[in-house]
Amino acid sequence: MTDIPSQSPPAQAPDPRRWWVLAVVGTAQLMVVLDATIVNIALPSAQRDLGFSDADRQWVVTAYSLAFGSLLLLGGRLADLFGPKRFFLAGAVGFAASSALAGAAGSFELLVAGRALQGLFGAVLAPTALTLLNITFITAKDRARAFGVFGAIVGAGGAIGLLLGGLLTEHLSWRWTLYVNLIFAALALIGGLLALRQTRRDTRPRLDLPGTLVVSAGLFCLVYGLSNADTHDWGSPLTWGFLIAGVVLIAVFGFWQTRAAHPLLPLRILRDRNRAASYLSILIAAVGTFGIFLFLTYYMQTTLGYSPVRTGCAFLPMIAVLVVSAQMSTNLTVPKLGARVAVPAGMLLGAGGLVWLTALDLHSGYAAHVLPPLLVIGFGMGHVMPPAIGGATAGVAASDAGAASATVNTMQQVGGAIGTALLNTLATSAATDYLKSHPPNPAVVAEARLHSFITAFWWSAGIFTLGALATGLLFRNRTGTTSQPDRTKTPAHL
What we know:
With 494 residues, the protein is mostly helical.
């Protein structure tokens, strides 16, 4: 009897609506990313309007980051369990409603409540968007292009938020920095209804409730402690106490995940060395990038006298270079040289640009002294974010895509919190020490402020340099990080 040769199942055809899916999830991700910075420029106007104190001001930003950072893993796992489409749509509706609430707030308390709800629905929307991207693009070529665009959005979102926040605050009202989300959310909702596919699960979803409670509390303590370092100091119990509690709870969570029947974050996601290197890259990029956006924004407004709108426009060339570099990295550099070369090289370029910025003085000009290092940094970040985000979710089974995507956003959020707290504390200490050793007068105050910015640039450059070394050692080989994900557990499309 002649054996009949076995045949492998036919390859799954690319989704004809995949580029519409990219447009939809890109819009949602841009809304979530820029919301971390768009309100910052509007804070002085909101404070004058609502009459809250300087001490309370931080909570407009912290409420968002606390809810967002502490609930990301839960949001990602819920998307795994119940299907990404319905959670994406729910996240878009919730984000729009909470933005409208915060924008219409007549009191400080209502504004903070609206921002916290924004963070909650952002924790649903952000990992779900990346999950949809991960399960939609199945060929290496399309996947590289999609993650190039997505990485550019993530990398440029903070600068876009500064520009848009300045424009809306200056020409309309601080409330429009929140109302503008209704436009983004409406586009994401309509596009999601038309372009996204619903998924079907063969098994009943289950959730790791103990793990959810422990990790949410741990991330809350970590982000809260880092936020306190920005307004108190590192010796305050409100800082180190919450940080220690956060680290202990996250360690307990990791131990529990090895024993849970249905883990919230399956540790198999973290065991892949390239994926772990990708997560580290995202964390370090988020930390170092705050040294660019935060302190260069202050430099241009307080030292060069730029308006919020002009400050935002000053970042546009960096965004343009970042977008071009992102496409170059995903379509040329990573396929030929691998993430092991592309990501460390991008971090070294970022470090070089930041060292260049340390040459700024009180009379520097934009075209000669600010623009060139910004272009170098933008090119470098375009070689870090897309391959890192692609590598963080590549090869992950569809059943784990939400957890992997949520971890990406968690790294970004925690990295941003670390960057804000660490760099702001270092900069403030540098300014204080400078004033102690110089007689106080307006010129000395201006020099002290400049000295604090330069200190932040040096530390950010050091962070990128360490990141280049660490990722160069961690990435396993020269292969790209945009390989196809595991389709063995992909749910059927309806």
